[in-house]
Design a protein that fits this description.
The two termini are 35 Å apart. The longest helix has 19 residues, at 339-357. The chain is built from 12 helices and 15 strands. By secondary structure, it is α/β, with parallel strands linked by helices. The protein folds into 2 domains: 2-122, NAD(P)-binding Rossmann-like Domain (Rossmann fold); 123-302 and 345-357, Dihydrodipicolinate Reductase, domain 2, CATH 3.30.360.10. The strands form 2 sheets. The chain has a 9-stranded mixed sheet. 33% of the residues lie in helices and 21% in strands. It binds nicotinamide-adenine-dinucleotide. Nicotinamide-adenine-dinucleotide is lined by residues 7-10, 30-33, 36, 55, 70-73, 75, 93-94, 122, 167-168, 314.
Length: 372
């Protein structure tokens, strides 16, 4: 039996995935806000004895085997380190860290701990992202050389509490320039290129500040990522612009085919897989639905558990993230998004913060596998 503590109300999104696993029991919840604590406890069915308003108390008194950190971004690293140093596994919300110093501290803590760490990048587990990844790894796009990801989500209303003071987002997401929240876009795009793919250098430019003069964050920020496997990824982050949301746009181009996610207004996921016909100028260049390829290529978790995952919300990602982490712990396997993969998704955004203030100059991205 693996006991779990949920920290921060967002950790409630993982309840359905946890409850689908017979080896798991949620024993504790922690929230600073007593109202949010009550809702979280109700959602996870945790009695009063397992409810805490301080993280230290949850760790000491409930002593779960695993904590799920759904707290503000700057708390992920200190809270993960506290757990790891007690031998408690940690599943952290995105992004993994808010600066390079935190990255170094987190990697060191994972190295010295017997417990596992994983970053919960649910975007990598969306149905379309997993199917496109499977097609890419089967070689159906040929050699991949370009991918895109966009996170377009006007969250200006989340930068202040209803009574006025700034929230954590005002500091860590829009209190500085650069691609401060890029992992939802970069994670799935990197995985299209394969598990060895990582970003070696980053160049970042901004649109300037137009709709929200209070914060020093560009309305749109573009991060260009050069890859070690050849190719480039373009990430657009926009948490300001007045427009409909699209938090999951991705695209992929290879030598034999391409994929584009919907941009809304009735659009759907689509691919063109020219195959050998790609070299034939008379070949038909018409889109097909991505879902035409699901029968043959949809990966297993979505095949047998897709309906349950979809019901759990957030595109099913949270459901599979937590199941994968628990299964890695129970079977002693390396988690799919371990601390190094978490760095591969997070560090380019942190380097982009330096690039954008230097006018977009390309800067190298350290590989934390090699950082002492
Ligand atoms: N993966 C996704 O799809 C996704 C979606 C939303 C948010 N997030 C991430 O989840 C995290 C939380 O985001 P949110 O939108 O819920 O933020 P939020 O500001 O709405 O909520 C944060 C909550 O954390 C609580 N909290 C703060 N410090 C705490 C502490 N020390 N111990 C316990 N609880 C504490 C607050 O009381 C608050 O209820 C962020 O890291 C964000 O990036 C991820």
């Amino acid at each position: 039996m693996l006991t779990v503590g949920l920290v921060g109300k967002r950790a409630g999104s993982f309840v359905a995935g946890l409850q689908s696993l017979p080896e798991v029991r949620i024993v504790a919840v922690c929230e600073l806000s007593t109202e949010a604590l009550e809702r979280l406890a109700g959602r996870a069915d945790v009695p009063a004895g397992g409810q805490f308003t301080h993280y230290d108390d949850l760790l000491e008194r409930a002593r779960p085997d695993l904590v799920i950190l759904g707290t503000p971004m700057h708390l992920h690293v200190p809270q993960a380190i506290q757990a790891l140093d007690l031998g408690i596994h940690a599943l952290s919300e995105v992004t993994a860290a808010v600066d390079l110093d935190q990255c170094r501290q987190l990697v060191a803590a994972v190295r010295r701990s017997r417990a596992h760490y994983m970053m919960a990048e649910n975007a990598c587990y969306r149905k379309a992202a997993m199917l496109v990844r499977a097609l890419a790894h089967e070689g159906l796009f040929g050699r991949c050389y370009f991918a895109e990801g966009e996170y377009l989500h006007d969250v200006k209303q989340l930068h202040h509490f209803p009574d006025g003071p700034p929230t954590w987002r005002a500091t860590w997401q829009v209190g500085k320039r650069g691609c401060t929240y890029g992992t939802h876009s970069l994670g799935p795009a990197l995985e299209f290129f394969g598990p060895e793919a990582r970003v070696t250098s980053v160049s970042c430019m901004g649109s300037g500040i137009h709709t929200d003069p209070e914060h020093p964050h560009d309305d749109t920020c573009i991060m260009l990522c050069q890859l070690n496997v050849g190719g480039v990824i373009k990430v657009r982050l926009d948490m300001m612009s007045n427009r409909p949301h699209n938090q999951a746009y991705q695209a992929l181009q290879g030598t034999k085919g391409c994929y584009e996610a919907p941009r809304g207004f009735g659009d759907d996921h689509k691919v063109w897989l020219g195959g050998d016909a790609a070299s034939d100028p008379r070949a038909r260049r018409e889109w097909r639905s991505l879902w035409d390829y699901a029968d043959e290529f949809l990966p297993e978790p979505w095949r047998s558990l897709g309906n349950d995952a979809a019901r759990a919300g957030h595109g099913g990602g949270d459901y599979f993230v937590v199941r994968d982490f628990v299964q890695a712990i129970l079977h002693g396997r390396t988690p799919p998004i371990d601390v190094y993969r978490a760095m591969d998704y997070t560090v380019p955004g942190l380097i982009s913060e330096q690039s954008i203030v230097q006018g977009g100059v390309p800067l190298p991205v350290p590989d934390f596998r090699e950082v002492a």
